[in-house]
Recover the amino acids of this structure.
């Protein structure tokens, strides 16, 4: 695909993007700005791309599906675990009041902060929920790395909040959505694993 609009048109036609507000967010965030310079020619392909740290930037269709599942409202405070180069966080920032991104790799923290020029985004260096205050709660939480469960997230979720992310069980990852005590499954996925340290 030749540019970001063409990519978004493809995601709409594919059904990965379902709502006008998510479509608008994707049009306002150019994926090319979040991939390493050597991969800018592939920025509009619907596939994961390597970052300079061994991590990856997820395929646009995966970001779109996860974003739609979150059902972000404009008053929401959103947390992303594993924010990478900032692509998902930038899209969430278009949809919500406040976004906190947690990333363990310092190089990616610096890159994310450079990539996202928005006052409502706070990219923090840290190991998952260790970078979140004990009394800090979020309306929406998204994992951009595979975890064993959502237990830590539930502790920081508002009463009617939503969690979306890949959960790994028996070597297989499934995209799951949690809300009000109920969990639904949304297909097999492949994400990098949560980094412990």
């Amino acid at each position: 695909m030749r540019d970001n609009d063409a990519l978004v048109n493809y995601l709409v036609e594919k059904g990965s993007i379902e709502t006008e507000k998510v479509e608008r967010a994707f049009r306002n965030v150019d994926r090319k700005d979040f991939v390493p310079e050597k991969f800018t020619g592939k920025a509009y392909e619907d596939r994961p791309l390597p970052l300079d740290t061994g991590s990856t930037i997820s395929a646009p269709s995966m970001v779109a599906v996860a974003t739609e599942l979150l059902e972000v409202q404009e008053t929401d405070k959103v947390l992303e675990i594993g924010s990478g180069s900032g692509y998902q966080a930038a899209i969430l920032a278009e949809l919500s009041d406040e976004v906190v991104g947690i990333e363990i790799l310092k190089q990616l923290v610096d890159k994310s902060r450079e990539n996202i020029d928005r006052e409502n985004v706070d990219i923090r260096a840290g190991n998952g929920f260790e970078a979140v205050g004990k009394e800090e709660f979020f309306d929406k939480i998204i994992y951009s790395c595979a975890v064993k469960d959502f237990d830590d997230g539930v502790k920081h979720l508002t009463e009617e909040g939503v969690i979306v992310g890949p959960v790994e069980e028996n070597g297989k990852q499934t995209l799951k959505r949690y809300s009000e005590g109920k969990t639904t499954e949304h297909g097999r996925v492949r994400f990098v694993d949560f980094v412990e340290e």
User: Anything to note?
Assistant: The first strand starts at residue 49 and ends at 50. The radius of gyration is 15 Å. The longest helix spans residues 4-14.
